[in-house]
Amino acid sequence: MAGENWVFWLNMTNLALGIVTLLALLVVGGAVGWELLARAARKTRETNNLDAEMWAMLHTESHTLSVPGLGLTMADGGEVIESSKTDSSDERPVRK
Fold it and tell me: Domain map of the chain by residue range?
């Protein structure tokens, strides 16, 4: 071959491919690290919400349960509270 010029270009090609490979590894590693960090943050947020819900449940009035359609219900029957609506008298009193 005419001179050693092909060795230089072979080395430059290998260097360029090595740099591209390192950049690709950095991008993939960064994406995996970001996803793991996001999952850890999400899990921490869910755990904190669960702790707050458990604390609220344990420190509220005993034997109460909030049911969306029924309002506040009690396991032992509770006390009868008259409805705030005075126009319909055929409704049953709400137990609280």
Answer: 1-60, 62-96
